[in-house]
Amino acid sequence: MNTKAIYAAGGGIAIAAVVIFFVLGANPLPAPSTSPGTNSTAGAPTMVPPVIGVKDVSVTKADDTHANVQVTFTVENPNTTTMILETIHYNVNVDGVRMTIGDVGQSAQGFLDSQGNLFPIVAGSTLTAKNTQIAERNSALADAWDKMVSGNASFLVDGTYSYRLTAANLQTTAEDREFSLTFP
């Protein structure tokens, strides 16, 4: 039998085990409870969506027509199990004008798809994710671009984010949610 095939199969099994660990979480099964934050009929924990925020928007002028726009997001997991952040699709707007668009992460297309662009967020912790895109100056957005590059802009960052959360009772939530945040 081909040794490379055996190693590849073993590696695939190891990756699957790690993914299952993060999806199901490392927490033991909770005892049934009727306290706040639980579903009193099944004793299952309530799954709460992540809390997304914009920590920073940094603009660096590259030349007279290009600027690098870096957005730093925070994503808090308020749940008792590990959550998987798949993607953040976003727009950066100044004065109602879209300056750039970007993506953090990648949606998984199946069990065997690459998991490298998924972000596990351990229970009760916060992930910081950054993405940089180029904003190009043209006549349609010149005033907003100039304001952004000079450091005098207020930003509206909006879009959608996707996540998966599996509770200890194996109930899974996978959702896309919209967001709209201002910075500063």
TrEMBL record:
Domain of life: Archaea
This protein's record includes keyword Membrane: yes
Keyword Membrane among record annotations: yes
Membrane-spanning segments: 6-26
Alphabetically ordered keywords of this record: Membrane, Transmembrane, Transmembrane helix
Name the record gives this protein: Water stress and hypersensitive response domain-containing protein
Organism: Nitrososphaera viennensis EN76
Lineage of origin: Archaea, Nitrososphaerota, Nitrososphaeria, Nitrososphaerales, Nitrososphaeraceae
